[in-house]
Structures are given as C-alpha cells and as structure tokens.
Amino acid sequence: MDDFTHATEAYLSWLRASGITISPKIHLADLRSRNASRGVVALSNIAPDEELFRIPRSIILTPSSLPSLPADADPWTGLILSLIAAHNAGPASPWAPYLAVLPPLEAFNTLLFWTEGELAELQASPVLGRIGAAEAREMIAERVVPVIEAEPARYGYAASPGRDEIFATANRFASIIMAYAFDIERDPAERQPDEEGYVTEDEDAELPKGMVPLADALNADGERNNARLFYEPDALVMKAIKPIPAGEECLNDYGELPRAEVLRRYGFVSPTYAAWDVAEVEQSLIDSVLRAGGIDIPFYTFAAERNALINDLEILDDAYEITRLTPDVHGLSIFDHALRHQILLRVLEPLPNPPPKPSHTAKDTYRYPRAWFAVLEQVIEAKLRQYGTTLFEDREILASLERAGEGAGRRGMAVQVRMAEKEVLHGALQALALGRREAAEVDIGGEKRRREEGEEGGRKVRRER
Ligand SMILES: C[S@@+](CC[C@H](N)C(=O)[O-])C[C@H]1O[C@@H](n2cnc3c(N)ncnc32)[C@H](O)[C@@H]1O
C-alpha cells in the first residue's frame, strides 16, 4: 500500500469514528490518473435526494474550533490560524487524519504558485490582474504573522518561527481554504430573536468559513453536477440531486465560473465551464482606441460636455465584461451595458436632450450608429492583438501539447484559458457584424419602422453615411 492509499484508509476510519454516516453506495476513489487526487464515486445506482453522507456539525473545522482566536479575526484569517494550529499539533490534533489528505504546497496548480514564465502563457488574460499575490502577502503580513509572533505556543510553535515559515504555511492554508472551504450557513436554532421577536439574517455579514471533511472530497464539473450540500440544524448532508449511475463520479457545484476563474481558484481547467467564459476590455484600451483616430468617429467624442455626462452617469469602470455569443442570447447583450452605453454617448450626434438611458436589453440595435460598431470592433481587435498568438495558432499549440501528453499541464491549461477568451472576442466580432447588418436594415426601413412603432419620443435614427 503506498502512502497515498494509506492516508486514504486512515482518513476513512477517522471519518467513521467521527460520526459521519457514509452511504455504502459510494467510495473515496483514487483519481491520480486523472490529475484529480481523490474524488467520490458511486458504487451502485443512486436516486435523486438520496443521502451520500451526513456530517455532524461538530466535526467541521471552523475558527471557533480554536479557543481564544483574536476577536476581530475575519473568516479567512480565523480559519488560516485554526488550520495552522491544528497542523502544528501533529498527530495529537483531532483533525490529523483529515489534514493528512489535504494537498501539500507543491501540489497546487492555482495561479498563486505559477512562475512568471508560466503566467506569461496566459498572455493578455485579465485573470493575471486577479491572482492577488501581493494582497495575500499583505494579508498574511498584517493579520497572521503578528498574531503568531505574539503567542507562538498557542499556534503549536515550540519557538518563534521564522517569517518565511509562517508565510509558506499560511499560503498553503489560504490556498486550501480557497479551493476546499465552505461558507457555513448557521444553524437556524442558534439565531437570536431581536427585541421584537423576529429572527433576521444580516445580509451583509460574512458567513463563517469552515473545512467540511468529505464534502470537500467532491470534485466539480460545469455540466455534470449531480450532488449538493444541504445545511440541517445538526448536520450537513450531501445528497444526490440527479440520478447517479454506478461508476459515475459524484460532483459538486463550484459555481458558474469562467475557465480562467476555475483555474485561478481551483487549479484545473475543464471545457465544461465554457458557457461562462468571458473576455474583458479595459477602459484604458477603449480610450486609446478612441484617441488613436483612424475611425470614423466624430470630433466631439471627448468634448467637455460628453465627458461630464459620462462621469455624471458613473458608468465608467476599469474594465468591462463580454460574455460568450450563443444562439440563446441577443447578440449585442453580450457586451456589458456600461460599455455599450459609454461608447454610444461618445459617438451620438447630436447628443439628444435628455440623453439616452443605459439600456440593459440591447434589443434596440437601431439606436447604435455606424461609428459605435466601428469603435467596438477596433477595441475588440486591439484586445485580440494583445494576446500575441491567434486562436488558430493556439489550436495548433494545444494539439501538439496534447499529442505530447501535456495538455493538462500548466502550459496546456494556460493555452485553454487564453483560447476561451479569444473565442469570446471572436464571438463579439460576429455579434457586431450581425448587429451592424441589422442596424443598416432597420435604418433603410427606418421610416416604416418608426411609423409602425409610433414616434419613439421623436428619437432620431441615424442613417448610414
Ligand atoms: C474541494 S477539492 C476536491 C477534492 C480533491 N480532488 C482532493 O483529492 O483533495 C478541490 C480540488 O479538487 C481538484 N478538482 C476538482 N474538480 C476537478 C476536475 N474536474 N478536474 C481536475 N481536478 C479537479 C482541484 O485540484 C481542486 O482544487
């Protein structure tokens, strides 16, 4: 028996001894051949609503598992400190067999652990701006290190540990929390009624984070989610939400995330998340395209009046999302409405009074003049150029990585993420081409359409020049 299997066996004995009820229809499988470490697999057919396992709340590792944490510890810091204390307690920790199956630092593929060279393979992906390495360091430096240095013994250190050691351990547990922890819904019985006898939930209060053994052994898939964790007063219960045939993996829902986000948080990439892929265009890119000229945009684009109006509307942001063009969405609604609207306000001639309101539906294509399409097309093309390779080249690169058995490696994952974003951008160009055609048709038939629809508040439809 190798160490991995040995740890799994010890973990299973510990789970049972801790009062977790596990259905005989599942087992904890070795999925190393699929780069997924462990996962839960059905041994026989499971019906919807059947319980896979039931976890008593007492076995969840939360910040309150560690007595006398700093009172102001937020859910992340609290859980990092608790995990460090449990880890340092070694075999004496009540969670030792559980901690033994959590990944070591070197097993992480989340972006925090990629080298600069590996990150460069993500090219112009906006996910690079969200890795948060500096923020993580700052958080550990400000909220974890001083607490441990003040009382090393409480966190299981014999002597004051070096800062590097604290950083490495805290980084590992922060990454584990990101990929494994749950937001623990409170036991309704613990909620206190207010003076008037009402029990209300503070919507803004952060839910406590906790490590839920076995529930966090479920892997995820964007299309085949078949299990969900239910919060009961005394226990957390994992149930099937669909039939799970024998031999199939029980899969949790990690959320509707683009592939870039799945990679950032969980360290893997799967095409089953393609429906939620997004691309982003930065405000700085839009500004540089507008200022570069070469587009048939009116001279007043940056007139003080326009700038003032756009600022007043408070629609500007650092970047705007574009979602995937699919047959179910109206073409132009793939563009964030603030993106559509600010460009409209820049290119409308003359600026109507009152100015048009941001439209969330994007169905009124005929309001977009030709310059609007031209600007957006240039922005998307400029974004595509930032990536360095084309979608076509990426397909070749990925195919050759797959032939070499390296498709699931870091480079392969980076290529899949950047391809996903390029696909979204190409979809955007397609949506613009279709929208432009539709707008031209509406323009040509504009008089007729206006008569049919009523005067639309006297709004002018611009003709194609
Ligand atoms: C909550 S844990 C699931 C249990 C994990 N496989 C284990 O053995 O500890 C989340 C981690 O599982 C892995 N994972 C989850 N779903 C996956 C998938 N579809 N493909 C590959 N790895 C996956 C990733 O490493 C992710 O960070």
Characterise this structure.
With 465 residues, the chain is α+β, with helices and mostly antiparallel strands. It folds into two domains: 265 residues, Alpha-Beta Complex (set domain protein methyltransferase, domain 1), CATH 3.90.1410; 182 residues, Alpha-Beta Complex (set domain protein methyltransferase, domain 2). Helix content is 40%, strand content 10%. The protein contains 14 helices and twelve strands. The strands form five sheets. The protein has a four-stranded antiparallel beta sheet with strand order 1-4-9-8, with no helix packed on it. The termini are far apart. Bound molecules: S-adenosylmethionine. S-adenosylmethionine binds next to strand 3, helix 6 and strand 7.
Number of domains: 2
According to CATH, the fold-level topology of the largest domain is set domain protein methyltransferase, domain 1
Instruction: Please summarize the sheet with the most strands.
Output: 4 strands, antiparallel
Question: Which structural class do you get from the secondary structure elements?
Answer: alpha+beta
Judging from the principal axes of the Cα atoms, what is the shape?
A: globular
Low-confidence parts lasting 5 or more residues at pLDDT below 50? 447-465
Straight-line N-to-C gap: 76 Å
